[in-house]
Amino acid sequence: MIKIENLVGGYKNTPIIKGMDLEIEQGEFFALLGPNGSGKTTLFKLITGQLPIREGKIILSGKEISSYSKLEKAKKVSVLTQEIQVSFDYTVEEIISLGRYPHQKGMLKQLSIADQKMMSDVMEKTKISHYRYTPFRMISGGEKQRVLLAKALAQEPEILLLDEPTNHLDINHTFQILDLLKEQQQETGLTVLAILHDLNIASLYADRIGLLEKGKLLEVGGVDVLRKEEQLKKVYEVEVKSQSHPVVPKPQILMTPGHVITDNPFDFNKSYKIVKNSTYIHVQFFQALRTISNGVIGEGIQWAKHFCNFHVDKHYDCSNPKKDLQEKMNTYDIPYEQAVGMMTAVNLEDMVMETKEIEGIPMMVIVTAGIGNAVDITNEYAVHPSSQIGTINTMLFIDAHFTDGALVNGYMSATEAKVKVLQDLQIKDPESDTIATGTSTDALLLGLTQQGEVTPYAGSGTVMGKGIGQLVYHATMKAVKKYLKRVQR
Amino acid sequence: MQSSFIQKYLANKVFWLYLFAGGIVLGTILLGLLESSVHIPIPTILHIVFENSLGIGWLSDVPKNVEMIIWNIRLPRVLLALCVGASLALAGAAFQGLLRNPLADPYTIGVSSGSALGAVFVIFFQVTIVGLGSYTLPVVAIVSGLITLFIVFGLVRLSSRSLAIETIILAGIIVSAFIGALTSLIISLGDQDAMTQIIYWLYGSVAMRGWSHVQLIIPFMIVGALILFVHYRELNALALGEEAADHIGVNVKRGKLFILIGASLLTGAAVAVSGTIGFVGLVIPHLVRLVTGPNHKHVLPLSMLIGGAFLILADLLSRTVVAPSELPLGVITGLIGAPIFAILLVKERISGRGD
């Protein structure tokens, strides 16, 4: 569709685009990314003809772009920029009719019936038909942009150039506009070449991405180009982390602000307080901790400040545990959005809390244990609805800085330690009469202060992993013994 | 169903607007012919007009002096007012569309004074360019108006990058002041008699001009109007800004040049035959836009019709208010126009803030 060969161009004396080759296929959504001043807008102006091409060429549908007349080009290429100011009270329909400008024929250049139909179609498509007779100046920013998109589509372009079209819009209108564009691309094979500032939006909508730096294309490829953190860091000079979107298999970029890194360190032993009674255990940290857990609330990898273990009745109806737990937290003024929450039927008086230092790194663990539902995960019996509530809930807090990988390592280490306790105590799965590996509803959380050196591993082959294992083993052993004692009584 | 109904209604509305505007023009022409110190009955007036223009007459004994009054004095005066009003209103509408601002007008952006300087020069020194004859006056006025326009735009471009209307009007005032000084200089070179005559001319008037002046303005008015009518879509497109107009395929540079030439033709010719009459180009397009909306397809022709009718009425007022003596036309239009200009300025600032 568009082929750019060895392009040089820009303002007088100082070319902004310094030699660029790019080919954009018919029907694809291509996003140009790059910091301010990298030449994105200049490239656009070279395509639209507002700036002169100094070397190389731009070929549009097989013909050099400078050989098109303005009208011919407007029939092929339309442009949607950031919001533009319209003077006088033109109605929405009149604005859209301007999109028909390059198609109007004859001496009088009236709007033909075909023009009218095209206008109705694009208004329908962009859902602005009801604004048809409203003055453009009276509608909101998001609606204005839809009108301008309709105008651009009324041009019946083969390629649509977008210059940060959603910059000033809220997320609702941003996604509306981009969804409309994507639909248009998929239904009619419209080619879209977009300048986007938001890397995450580019990742969600683009088919391919070109990363521009100082007038040159650094890399062209699929959206997974955005997984190259080092490259992005170099181009944008911002700390970035590339993650996966939780729902769509596309990368999302997370930026780390400069000020967080210089935060003052805090003393782990003075950084929390614990409230403990017969209904709940509540560990509150004054700083948020990087957390991995399978709690009822706050599961997965998160940042959280509040860590709770709530007591529930033995015959608790667990049809909606999340909601119940949120309500409970509300009653005790614990903000559940920043919390990890677990449940247990175990008597909370039997809680075990231990602290330990490994190579100068403080750790603290809290365990409540019950083994009424001990299960050997490897036996082949069907899962029975639990008759007796009993679960091992473990909260482990460490004053260290773990990568996500180390978090998972640590999680494994803690789990292995728990299994070892059940093995050593010869706790059996009553169904299979084999040694149990856990109970049916064990919960575990790791909370990291993320202070100090970054620790990439915390498995059994590391000092950190062993430390976790020993601490969890000791505390769990104590807790299970307490439970057994209570049951015997 | 509903939309086609609305479209029909709109089409009808436009039709009625043109009919109404046409009716007003005819009505004001008749009124202009009728209303004066010497009363002449309407049938006689109609007879004289038709007999002299089309050769169809039905009255036999019309006194020669009555015919003189209607055909040689009142009709050319009324038609001249019509042409000048139409030209200025159309030029104003074009300037407003081009500059994307309702405050623009040949007078406020300084074109009128430039044309006036050229006209004064021709009248005072009795210059005739070979081959142009009596058309020397409008041609020089048009060219000097166009030059002034480019000076004003140059000044704006140098002082600010955007074509902000305040800057344009300020530049217009600066250039007008300078040109006014030049005009005064020329005037002061002459004797008392010529001085009074030129000063009075500068105030603007369509009195005592006769058919020759109607002949002077008509070709320029037709050419200027045609140029602008052909470019009505470009004027609409420019409402989006020059860049966006370029994106929909408008040749902005060429369009702007033609629009400027068309508007300057109209302004220059009007100034050449009538002096500087301000604010017609400001007020009329604004009123028309209130009724029709901003689409230049209708704003341009309707501004022409209403502008013509307006100036006939203003002229009527100028010769009846202090009869038997006359007020200059520019005084009347200034008295009406300047307050409206002020109101528009305030309104524009308020809506600008609201955006």
Automatic annotation (TrEMBL), chain A:
Pfam family, one: CbiZ
Key words, A-Z: ATP-binding, Nucleotide-binding, Translocase, Transport
Aminoacyl-tRNA synthetase among keywords: no
InterPro entries on file: AAA+_ATPase, ABC_transporter-like_ATP-bd, ABC_transporter-like_CS, AdoCbi_amidolase, P-loop_NTPase
Domain ABC transporter: 2-239
ATP-binding keyword on record: yes
Gene Ontology molecular functions: ATP binding; ATP hydrolysis activity
Family matches, as PANTHER family: HEMIN IMPORT ATP-BINDING PROTEIN HMUV
Name this protein carries in UniProt: ATP-binding cassette domain-containing protein
Organism name: Oceanobacillus bengalensis
Lineage: Bacteria, Bacillati, Bacillota, Bacilli, Bacillales
Automatic annotation (TrEMBL), chain B:
Annotated GO CC locations: plasma membrane
The keyword Cell wall biogenesis/degradation is annotated on this UniProt entry: no
Family: Belongs to the binding-protein-dependent transport system permease family. FecCD subfamily.
Record carries keyword Nucleotide-binding: no
Chief place where the protein resides: membrane
Molecular function via GO: transmembrane transporter activity
Membrane-spanning ranges: 15-33, 79-99, 106-129, 135-156, 168-190, 210-230, 257-287, 299-317, 329-346
Top-level lineage group: Bacteria
Entry protein name: Iron ABC transporter permease
Keyword vocabulary terms for this entry: Cell membrane, Membrane, Transmembrane, Transmembrane helix, Transport
Subcellular location: Cell membrane
InterPro entries membership: ABC_BtuC-like (IPR037294), ABC_transptr_permease_BtuC (IPR000522)
CDD domains, per the entry: TM_ABC_iron-siderophores_like (cd06550)
Mode of membrane association: Multi-pass membrane protein
Gene3D superfamilies named in the record: ABC transporter involved in vitamin B12 uptake, BtuC (1.10.3470.10)
SUPFAM superfamilies: ABC transporter involved in vitamin B12 uptake, BtuC
